[in-house]
Specification:
Length: 284
């Protein structure tokens, strides 16, 4: 009989389908009730104008050709710090967001945005564009993300490259979510402050030293193609279920692990850790 030794008790230990089922790992990634993926483009193309007319009256005017245009310095924009736009306001254009010069949080989930703008408010800390139609790759406008950005969610886009390459990330980033994005490999470097990394349902076959040497605490690499993995010693919540893992290694020790899911893999055992107070059955 083999045992897994840990310095502190795990909140959840899931080692195989026979021992337990996968815990809830996706923070609100299910489509909202009423969401439709077939909204006509003519509706989404002008959707931002309708949204601004509805919620920021007086901030849209007519140009010389009698077309609706956004007033850049509209007074109603200047003190807004958070924007949340759901599928009930369908749109594919976010170029107007730059006029919200004090914006700190932008949430446009389950919508129809096609491209990222080349200018964001410098004050933005959080961008959540989960489930739109954005092409995420190293040549995309991700390079225009504000340098002070701390949280970025761009997973589950309806337009997915044959293989997505994660571009350089803002140095202050703490949270990154790129679920179901056809990612085959991790970048050569990760921001030093990155603590949460959600990369489930991709095509990652191996994790490089950038991850092993990172400060990531919450790590989701479930539903990938991993066969081996070296873990960062900082990890507290670890989701590796549904891979092809044969071995897991750690750089030093994992003293703060709280939740672990390695169900549906090919593991015979787990890393040997320092002498501890708690013992958990691994396999017989």
């Amino acid at each position: 009989m083999q045992f897994l030794k840990l310095r502190k008790p795990l909140t959840a230990l899931l080692l195989s389908a026979a021992i337990g089922t996968a815990s809830a790992q996706s923070p609100g990634f299910d489509p909202p009730e009423g969401f439709k993926d077939d909204v006509p483009e003519k509706e989404t193309k002008t959707g931002h104008i309708l949204y601004l007319k509805t919620y920021y009256s007086g901030c849209v005017t007519k140009d010389n050709e009698n077309k609706d245009v956004v007033i850049p310095d509209c007074a109603k924009f200047k003190d807004v710090k958070s924007l949340t736009i759901d599928y009930k306001n369908p749109m594919n254009d976010l170029s107007w967001v730059k006029y919200f010069i004090k914006l700190e949080k932008l949430t446009v989930r389950w919508n129809y945005v096609k491209t990222l703008p080349d200018t964001f408010p410098a004050t933005l800390k959080t961008i959540d564009l989960y489930s739109n139609s954005i092409s995420v790759n190293e040549a995309s406008p991700l390079k225009y993300l504000p340098s002070g950005l701390e949280s970025l969610s761009l997973g589950n886009q309806s337009v997915v490259q044959a293989e997505t390459v994660i571009p350089p990330l803002p140095s202050n980033l703490k949270y990154l979510e790129l679920t179901a994005s056809n990612i085959a490999s991790l970048p050569d470097s990760l921001p030093s402050g990155l603590t949460t990394l959600w990369l489930g349902s991709n095509k990652i076959q191996f994790a490089n030293t950038a991850l092993a040497n990172s400060n990531v605490k919450i790590l989701n690499l479930s539903y990938n193609k991993l066969t081996t993995l070296i873990l960062p010693s900082s990890v507290t919540n670890l989701y590796l279920n549904n891979n092809a893992l044969e071995s897991i290694q750690v750089n030093t020790t994992i003293d703060s692990l709280k939740e672990l899911n390695v169900s549906n893999n090919n593991l015979a055992n787990l890393p040997t850790l320092p002498p501890l107070s708690y013992f958990f059955k691994c396999r017989e």
